[in-house]
Amino acid sequence: MAEFMIVLLSLSFSGTFLFAVVYIATRLLRNRLSRRWQYYIWLIVILRFLIPFAQTGNLTNVLFRSVSEFVQDSTDMSKRQIMEEQTADAAAGAPAGISDTDAAETSAETMKEPRRIMHKDTASADTKSEHRIDAAWFLFFVWAFGAAFCFLRKVTAYRRFIQYLNDGNTEVSETEVLDGFSVCKERLPVKRKIEIYRNQALFSPIMTGFFHPCIIIPDVTIKTDEAVYIFMHELVHYKYGDMFYKWLVQLTICLHWFNPVIYFLGKKVNENCELACDEKVIGELNGQERKAYGDALLSFMKREKVYENPTASLTLSEGAQQLIERLGAIMDYKKKTKSGLFCAGLLTVVICFFFVTLGAYAGKKEPAEAVEAEAAVTDDYSIINIDNIYYILTSDADIDDIPGGTATEGFVEIVLVKKSGYASIGPFLKHNFLSDVEKQCQYAVENGHLSPKEAKTIMEAAAEIEDSGFDIAGGLDALDSLDALDSLDTLDSLDTLDALDDSDSFVEKWNEGKASYVQSCFYQDPYAIALGWNLRDHVLGDLQTVTQSVTLEDGSKMTVYFAEELKKYVDDPEVMQAVAKLISQVKEDVANDEFRINNMISPAVEKPVIVNLIYIPYEEINDFAKNAYRRGDVGQFSYVESELTDEIRESYIERAYQEDKIDFFCILADDLPQEKRDEYGWKCYEEDKVGFFCMLTLSEETRQEIRKKAKQDNKIDFYYILED
After folding, report:
1. Order of strands across the sheet with 170-171?
2. Helices of type H across 619-670
3. What is the DSSP letter of 122?
């Protein structure tokens, strides 16, 4: 809807500009241009207000797109400041970030980068983006209401007036009047049958009707020569379709009711309409007849009243000021010279040139344009492997643009890194790696998350990664299918597969204290807080942090580390109260073995670090989650996921499963009842969704059943995942 409103505003902008050009031109060359030219030239302006189709290189499109891209770039820059500090666990949808020693140090290095901190008086760039979308819908409804009201008001007034006239109309039967009317029709010529009526309610002749036109004259005595001029004037209106022209103007006014210039345009068209009609009529008359025509205008002007509705009819006489102008034009009438015709032709070409070059907003860049625009930054790239995350650096990106994080154990991920941000896909197993990458790229392109050029670059890089013989933790490299196990007599002897995995067990590292840093997202009304704890002393020493002592609920004090950009908030009592309450609760949960990461017990909370903070009133949680899901921002969604009702959470997980959003599925799956998790386990197995399957903690009974079936079905991925 934002696109629609931008197009509408661009039409109003370019139409207004073209109106100014035409108005100035007609004022300067008024006496050199015919009245009819001055009347019909406004049609080009009206079309500029109405036609949204234009070349992408037009001035209005360049201006509006530049403004739009400036706003988008500002938003993207803010989003990048937020997103570049998220770990790959959050990006991939892991429930929390648990790293080994190397990963913890990598995370620490990443945390040196500036962070975008959210607080109660600073909205995030994404939230602002959603507010812009909401504002666009609000503006659309305001515009639509105004346009509908304006249109219905005009149509209603027209219908009432026509009904009012029909009730008082009587057919003209005088022979001399009808004969005079026939002569006028032949003189112009007009072949269409047009009725003539009298009406006591009128003081000036008018023409009404689109499909059944008729001329209505006052029910008074009218001289024969006056009647001729009446008929000539009204028949000229009919012959040149002035009624349709005027309604086109009224429709334009309804669409652009918010633009004051459009009302002035309507006034100019009405004025020029009568002047153009007079010019055409007097062009058929001699000098004496022109004087008589002017007298007829004065005669009807003396009868005073005219129905003031420009959409209802076409009248012979208007207000006094315009009448003076019309009489002056009649007396000064001269046939236009060749120089005048040349001037009109040249000016028409100039105005048409402005019509094309002004144009209108052509919308966002088409895929072909986007590909061309990004070709310079995606044709050349380099690949860096950090802990099984393969970063594809485009030509405009460097090592500082790489976001931090680690891949889920046993998987690899791919991250396309550009200067303006990054896009990640995965996780993937090596089995069917290229096929799975292609599927995710195709999905991302179809949903606008990647451009075709970016998807092509990822596919080329994925082929290089596979050709390089990359190693995936878990030993799947040694097996292409379960046929390789034919030498083993029984399924139980598959336990010897453990020997194929020469990497240290992550659980063993955890238990040995080699992987101790924990970071997760929590909601403590009214804040969403990213809290980490247990960073090594040497890592904390390298970070840019500030400290503040807080009093926990048990009365003890604890030193809390805050990211550098949070330093102005450490003295905020409301923020510190929320932090103290959160840490107290987490400490209690850890002590009671109620806080686990990947089904492993968390170490005690020491050296807590506040990484991020977002102000989210409790009543706005559902909207925040909805907007985060719509944007595909799993990091922000995870802040409030725990606060959603069971019904809403289950609707999100089903939606994430159907839409192949594995990251959202992952953070939602842990909170499912065991029965529901087992149900999704079988569903993932039947539909070959290995990535989703990996995110589920299944009951032992279901694990054994699926493991047995995987052996029978030769599904090595599922079999190995369920290996004890």
Report:
1. 170-171, 195-199, 214-218, 206-208, 314-315
2. 621-631, 634-640, 646-658, 662-669
3. B
The whole-number pLDDT of residue 327 equals: 63
Torsion angle of the four alpha carbons 642, 648, 652, 655, in this order, in degrees rounded to the nearest 10: 170
* Residue bearing tokens 């995370």: 107
The pLDDT confidence band at residue 334, using thresholds 50, 70 and 90, is: low
In what helix (H) or strand (E) does residue 279 lie, and over which residues does it extend?
Answer: helix 260-282
Q: 608-623: per-residue pLDDT in tens? A: 888 788 888 888 888 8
Closest residue by Cα to residue 12 from 126, 146, 131? 146
C-alpha 545/C-alpha 524 separation (Å) is 22
Q: What is the pTM of this model?
A: 0.48
Quote the DSSP letter at residue 335: P
- The strand pair at 545-551 and 557-563 is best described as antiparallel
β-bridge partners, 171: 197
Q: Where are the domains of the chain?
A: 88-122+516-615, 367-473
DSSP helix/strand/coil, 337: coil
**d(C-alpha 431, C-alpha 439), whole Å:** 14
Neighbouring residues of 43: CB distance < 8 A, sequence distance ≥ 6: 245, 248
- Owner of token pair 């932090």: 579
**How many residues appear in the chain?**
724
Taking the C-alpha atoms of residue 511 and residue 503, their distance in angstroms, rounded to an integer, is: 16
